[in-house]
TrEMBL record:
Family per similarity comment: Belongs to the methyl-accepting chemotaxis (MCP) protein family.
Gene3D superfamilies with a match to the protein in the record: Methyl-accepting chemotaxis protein (1.10.287.950)
Entry's Gene Ontology cellular component terms: membrane
Name the record gives this protein: Chemotaxis protein
Protein's organism: Clostridium bovifaecis
Stored InterPro entries: Chemotax_Me-accpt_rcpt, MCPsignal_dom
GO MF term set: transmembrane signaling receptor activity
Keyword match Flavoprotein: no
Length: 110
């Protein structure tokens, strides 16, 4: 989209240059058209500046999205590690419970 708008801006600039040339050829009769030609060129320059700003903003957004993506992936890895640790703790607790049940049976027989 930016390329398309950039092409339109370049073509508008050429149109403004051609209009300026034609207005100078027309001499006194082309003075009013000269003002239009200047405004067309201003519009073209303004469009080009806007394109640069939009491009900079899009690059910044792209960088931010990539940073967020990296942080999400990092968080997922940490979550998976924590889930694995919780499973280990759960297994250890179940083992302790089984051992406690055995000790309870032995104690009741004594």
């Amino acid at each position: 989209m930016l390329k398309f708008v950039g092409n339109v801006a370049r073509q508008t600039n050429l149109l403004g240059l051609n209009a300026a040339i034609e207005s100078s050829r027309a001499g006194e009769y082309g003075k009013g058209f000269s003002v239009v030609a200047k405004e067309i060129r201003k519009l073209s320059n303004s469009s080009n500046e806007s394109i640069r700003q939009i491009d900079t903003t899009l690059k910044s957004i792209r960088t931010s999205v990539n940073d967020i993506w990296d942080k999400i992936n990092s968080s997922n890895e940490i979550f998976e590690q924590q889930a694995g640790s919780i499973e280990e703790v759960t297994g250890a607790i179940q083992s302790l419970y089984s051992t406690a049940e055995i000790l309870k049976e032995i104690a009741s027989k004594l």
